[in-house]
Write a structure and sequence with these properties.
The protein has one domain. The chain has no helices and 42 strands. It is mainly beta. Helix content is 0%, strand content 47%.
């Protein structure tokens, strides 16, 4: 195992003369191998751009780095990643694969995976018992992420990973809080969502935040036991389909209406929400808006093991309609609908019970209307 410092006079990673054994030293140390630690610290060509496959042990972009490290190839990082400064990224397409086997610590600089023609780069986290921490002021921007090992996410930044395309989990991804910061992994993009999901999404106080569009769908495999799983509905006036699946008892499924006239429609079959179901709304009042929760159209059936809750102040100027339909719906905890309203506006809760069966077990229904700024 050795050290390789970037002192390049051009952008070629695969030129032995562009690497030194010491910081700012003479070139000629040789191209990094799978067991060599790589350092960038501001002493080489402004751009390092490997266009064929690379491999190294640890890689560090140190404070004072002025270079841009841009990968246009497959890469394997056998050790840890440290980003304190500079730029680390990959060009888009055609299916580049970057594998991280160690810990990933991001404290400064920029980490961003680009887009291009074809399949954009996948970053795979394959190590067991590894951590990902974003303590930077900048987002860590990914296109596709694969967790095949065991990765725990927890840093000082709220959104730890921003994923624009697909998240695949065949191992275990754990998203934890950091003190009072409820860390989250964010899926946000036209094609954002899950691809291969046979593993587990976990985390005692973490959050998966999905900007859920009308073209998206949730796959049914894998285990979801993360504390908060939020669908932030996109597209005004759109119908959003929710696929049947099971969410474990320590998971709070959150549905957030963000535009006017959105419909959240569950597909046919049984939906097991063994934890809590919470309804949110983030639409500023501009006249009376509408929102709908539809279990009727496809004769969906739901089992909610925790509280079924319309969050306080969620609908201040809305007609919110719940269509139960003809299925069987079981609520094992309280059903708590709390409305708040602005002066001069009206909020309405419309319940269409259908002809099915609603089981309140073991407790019942509580409905409250509370003016903003006041409480009962």
């Amino acid at each position: 195992m050795g050290s390789r410092y970037w002192v390049g006079t051009d952008l070629n990673w695969h030129d032995a003369n562009n690497w030194s054994l010491t910081s700012g030293g003479a070139g000629g140390a040789g191209i990094p191998t799978a067991s060599d630690d790589v350092f960038f610290d501001g002493n080489g060509n402004v751009l390092c751009w490997p266009s064929s496959d690379i491999e190294c042990n640890n890689i560090s972009l140190l404070t004072g780095m002025t270079e841009l490290f841009v990968i246009e190839a497959d890469a394997v990082i056998n050790g840890d990643v440290l980003i304190e400064d500079g730029y680390f990224g990959a060009t888009g397409g055609p299916g580049y694969w970057i594998e991280f086997k160690g810990d990933f610590l991001y404290t400064g600089g920029t980490f961003s995976i680009g887009t291009g023609t074809g399949t954009d780069p996948t970053c795979e986290f394959s190590g067991t018992g590894k951590t990902f921490a974003n303590n930077s002021l900048s987002a860590a921007s990914f296109q596709n992420v694969m967790v095949s090992g065991e990765l725990t996410v927890s840093g000082t930044r709220l959104s730890q990973m921003n994923i624009a395309q697909k998240l695949s989990i065949t191992g275990k991804l754990t998203v934890n809080a950091n003190g009072l910061t409820y860390c989250r992994v964010t899926l946000d993009g036209i094609n954002a969502g899950f691809e291969t999901f046979t593993g587990e999404l976990a985390g005692k106080n973490g959050r998966l935040y999905w900007f859920y569009r009308s073209t998206h769908s949730m796959i049914t495999g894998g285990t979801i036991s993360i504390r908060y799983f939020r669908y932030a509905l996109q597209d005004a006036g759109a119908v959003h389909i929710f696929n049947t699946r099971q969410y474990e008892s320590n998971c709070n499924v959150e549905i957030e209406y963000t535009e006017d006239a959105q419909i959240c429609r569950f597909e046919a079959g049984r939906h097991y929400l063994l934890g809590q179901l919470t309804i949110h709304c983030d639409v500023a009042p501009a006249g009376q808006e509408t929102a709908e929760l539809d279990w009727d159209t496809n004769t969906a059936e739901v089992w909610v093991g925790g509280k079924f809750d319309i969050y306080k102040s969620a609908f201040s100027a809305h007609v919110f309609t719940i269509k139960f339909g003809d299925g069987i719906h079981v609520f094992r905890h309280t059903v708590d609908f709390e409305f708040s309203y602005f002066s001069g506006t009206a909020s309405e809760l419309v319940v269409d019970p259908g002809q099915g069966t609603i089981i309140l077990w073991p407790t019942g229904l509580r409905v409250r209307a509370v003016p903003l700024g006041k409480s009962l």
